[in-house]
Design brief:
Blueprint (H helix, E strand, L loop, with lengths): L5 E5 L8 H16 L3 E4 L5 H12 L4 E6 H4 L10 E5 L2 H10 L3 E4 L4 H15 L7 E4 L6 H12 L12 E3 L5 H6 L7 H4 L3
Parallel strand pairs: 1-2, 1-5, 2-3, 3-4, 5-6, 6-7
Helix pairs in contact: 1-2
Length: 194
């Protein structure tokens, strides 16, 4: 594993109903900054995104936001971060975030967060990258995803090694060890489909 200097955060533009989500976002933002890592995220100042970014900035961290122009028109872009990159589309946003990051950490979120999580995991399955992907299971949020992936394997649509494409941890304290020990994707997760 190469040295990790930049963490991409996927998470909700709402804070959700469980206070554990907000607590995890705040702790993660601070922890990334305390380790001297850059935080790359979706550019908004609302929801869990805003909580994590405020914590990172308060701890003196560098924060890069990537936001599509149409969302800027809703005035949800976060002023005062290290760099705000405005792009043309959601696809370009994900590409830029991917290129600027060494690892992915995913907090609870809505359909957009699920889309980002599944896409980056799928890209890893396709051997397009070997970057660590870690989901923080604040309040048990990611258990249904873990169950769904197990179901996909049981139903014969994926090799059992797809479960190694990402790591689910219970707290922010476990994130950086999970990143450091993330296995390389096995070729079987790709060739099993060919």
């Amino acid at each position: 594993m190469t040295e990790i200097s930049s963490i991409c955060l996927f998470c909700g533009s709402k804070t959700g109903n469980d206070p554990a989500y907000r607590k995890a976002a705040e702790r993660l933002g601070g922890a990334v900054a305390e380790r001297g890592m850059r935080l790359v995220y979706g550019g908004g100042g609302i929801g869990l995104m805003g909580v994590a970014v405020e914590a990172a900035l308060t701890a003196g961290g560098e924060v890069i936001g990537v936001i599509p122009e149409f969302l800027m028109r809703y005035e949800v872009g976060k002023p005062g971060i290290s760099e705000l990159i405005v792009v043309n589309s959601m696809h370009e946003r994900k590409r830029v975030m991917f290129e600027k990051s060494d690892a992915f950490v995913i907090l609870p979120g809505g359909l957009g967060t699920l889309d980002e999580a599944i896409e980056v995991i799928t890209w890893k399955q396709l051997q397009l990258h070997a970057k660590p992907v870690v989901l923080i299971d604040a309040g048990g949020y990611w258990k249904p995803l873990k169950d769904l992936v197990a179901h996909v394997v049981l139903a014969g649509f994926a090799h059992p090694a797809v479960a190694e494409l990402f790591t689910i941890v219970n707290s922010v304290d476990e994130v950086f060890d999970a990143i450091a020990s993330a296995p390389e994707p096995r070729i079987e997760v790709l060739t099993d489909h060919l």
